[in-house]
Automatic annotation (TrEMBL):
The keyword Acetylation does not apply. It holds the Pfam family CbbQ_C. InterPro entries: AAA+_ATPase, ATPase_dyneun-rel_AAA, CbbQ/NirQ/NorQ/GpvN, CbbQ_C, ClpA/B, P-loop_NTPase. One of its GO terms (molecular function) is ATP binding. It comes from Staphylococcus arlettae. SMART domains: AAA (SM00382). This is Nitric oxide reductase activation protein NorQ. It comes from the Bacteria. Gene3D superfamilies: P-loop containing nucleotide triphosphate hydrolases.
Length: 263
């Protein structure tokens, strides 16, 4: 299968992100769920041919999940010894790879300050578990992603946010969306794809008017919807991928109206 890439008619998104990596700046990708943040990071990593380590944040994220942990191993002489297994942050630093920190605003505010030295000009960390001073190799870069305002997220600590340059990643639309649907779903009926794009435009308008929440029609949902549309009527595909995820009856009704209008 051909590897799909992040695309956007606004080329500043991808171009600025690659330029920021060359400048060794930390990038904060900000945008709603399913807007292509992870895809963008993966595409950047492939383009500059630098592998990427990933950390998924949650309230349980602790120093061990970032830096690594001690464990007992049997060495070649059959003796047991305590060794430290490097975690994603230290691996990325030592190997000069990209570190992708997903949902950075889900982590407890006290966990991330251990990364402050890694994230500023020092690019250095003293491993609290071993005392080792780790210096990042050339090529090391940090990309983080946030969905602002979602349940479970916290406002990002200012000192942390201050260390990043922000790139806003919004949902794509129009022909770009059509290309993504063609490349990443099973659907290849041009007529139906253009009606899905039009339907999606109507949803965006309703979002702007405050009638439905922004993530109702994420690109992820639209890809699911397009796949389902190859095996069931479009109305039911929309029901399963968009409408039934909403809890508010008025939002559901607004989308049903848009379905009736477009299909
Ligand atoms: N601009 C885009 N170009 C190519 N693919 C895209 C684009 N936007 C979204 N997609 C596709 O939509 C799906 C969701 O994208 P992705 O997982 O990158 O979203 P995300 O912003 O990381 O979401 P989350 O915040 O939930 O992690 C993927 O299948 C991805 O390939
Ligand atoms: Mg993601």
């Amino acid at each position: 299968m051909v590897k799909t890439q992040y695309i956007n008619s606004d080329e500043t998104i991808f171009n600025d992100a690659s330029a920021l990596l060359r400048l060794n700046k930390n990038i904060l990708l900000k945008g709603p769920t399913g807007s292509g943040k992870t895809k963008l990071a993966e595409t950047l990593s492939e383009t500059i041919e630098t592998p990427m380590y990933q950390v998924n944040c949650s309230v349980d994220l602790d120093a061990e999940s970032l830096l690594g942990f001690k464990t007992i191993q049997t060495n070649s002489e059959g003796q047991q010894e305590i060794v430290f297994i490097d975690g994603p942050v230290i691996k990325a630093m030592k190997e000069g790879h990209i570190l992708y920190i997903d949902e950075i605003n889900m982590a407890k505010p006290e966990t991330l300050p251990i990364l402050n030295g890694v994230l500023d000009y020092r690019r250095k960390l003293t491993n609290p578990f071993t005392g080792e001073v780790v210096k990042a190799e050339p090529g090391f870069n940090v990309i983080a992603a946030i969905n602002e305002g979602y349940i479970g997220t916290l406002p990002m600590n200012e000192a942390l946010k201050n260390r990043f340059v922000v790139i806003q990643v919004d949902y794509i639309d129009g022909d770009t969306l059509g290309n993504v649907i063609k490349e990443q779903s099973q659907l290849d009926d041009d007529n139906l794809i253009s009606r899905i794009i039009k339907f999606n435009e109507d949803l965006r308008t309703m979002t702007k008017q405050g009638q439905i929440s922004e993530e109702a029609a994420s690109i992820r949902a639209l890809i699911d919807l397009s796949d389902l549309a190859t095996i069931m009527p479009i109305e039911r595909a929309i029901q399963r991928t968009i409408i039934d995820k909403l809890e508010d009856e008025r939002e559901q009704q607004a989308i049903i109206n848009a379905v009736e209008l477009n299909f």
